[in-house]
Amino acid sequence: MKSEKPIVNKEFYYSYPRPEMLRYIDTGVKNILEFGCADGSFAAKVKEKFDCNYIGVEPLSKYANIARTRLNYVYEITAEEFISSSEGMENKYDVVIFNDVLEHLIDPYTLLKDLRMLLTQGGKVVASIPNFLNFQNIYSILRDKDFKYSEHGILDKTHLRFFTKRSIERLFNESGYNIEIIEGINCNIKSKKFKALNLITNGYLDEFKFMQFAIVAVKK
């Protein structure tokens, strides 16, 4: 089955503005926090759309320095360090963003639980998480009989966690959130054979089409 080729330039990760995630940000937000803001490309798009105070957390100096030209403030520390620091306790946020970040954390459950104290009443987490069940990923594992890490993509060697739609739902439910939206994004399987097979199986393969899931969750 033919599929689209994934992005292979890892530097692209740090500068891609993620336009598909913009629609998950509610209008009227005033204070936003983004973990793993990279060079601030996504933040710049958000700030073009909303009049908001935008704080970033980015541990890599190379990208944090660029992000500082686009955001109101950038902390050059890890997500875990931010949550445990006094700086992290200073403000509350309407939206906290994780664009392909939670899978890099040792314990995303604890971080999401602790994060609730930083959210305003009705505050939301907006996240994108890679989909392990993506057909291209599963096909490669079955074909090669190998779980081979790579420099990019779903099996990025810096990923510490792997998720499916169901395990994403568990992650947020067990961490004290109600999920408002969870849906597949960035479909990379468009062949007629796949569509026919999905039709025959009554939509069983729907989740296999997407490279990521987008999530909007509000604290309980």
TrEMBL record:
Coiled coil: none annotated. CDD domains: AdoMet_MTases. Pfam families: Methyltransf_23 (PF13489). The keyword Signal does not apply. Keywords: Methyltransferase, Transferase. GO terms for molecular function: methyltransferase activity. This is Class I SAM-dependent methyltransferase.
